[in-house]
Every structure is written in C-alpha cells, then in structure tokens.
Amino acid sequence: MAYSLKILSVYPQEITESGHDEIYLKINGENFWPPAEKYRRISRHQTIDIFQSKDHLSGQSTIELWEKDDISSDDLIARIVVEDPKGVFKKERRTQSGDGGTYEIIYELHPQ
Description:
single chain, mainly beta, 9 strands, 63% strand
C-alpha cells in the first residue's frame, strides 16, 4: 500500500559544530530538503518547521539528516527507517545522535 511521508520539523538538542550546523535531509537517498538550497543553517534549540511531503512511497523508507562539511565529506547525523503504516495514520517523534549532534525529527505517515 502506498503512503506519504511528511516531515514536520527538525530540532537540534546538540549541534555538531560551534555556533550552528548546516543541515539537509534526504529520503531514500535523494535530496529532499531544503528544496531551493544546498543546506539550511540551524542553531542549538532552534526549531525549523519543514512541512514537506514525499508521496507514493511503499515498503521501508529512510530519512537521513546530514551536516554539510566544506573541508571533508558531509556527516551523517541521523538515519531513521520507517515502515509502511498499512492504512493507519501515524505521527512519530524520533531523536538520534551522530557526529556529536543530537537531533529530534517529527514526521507523519499518511496512507494514500
């Protein structure tokens, strides 16, 4: 059964660098957010509302939060695997840590 994955917000409890991180999201390995930029700057305890959806998904999907790095390769901060909601609406809040940062991602799964 197809579903839609809607990312609601991203909130850094801890950032990977001093001052701010430059973050972006991928869904299933494809750049997803921000749509018109390579990354978005975010400070510790600053919520960014996203409210963007990826439609026509099936099976498992992967949300990845990356931190842009100019000197070396970009750093993976979080990887969340979501399952097909099987016809049921779900709203989830997941917190993950990586590369010294801790981020909370809130998302919804909508059956289609």
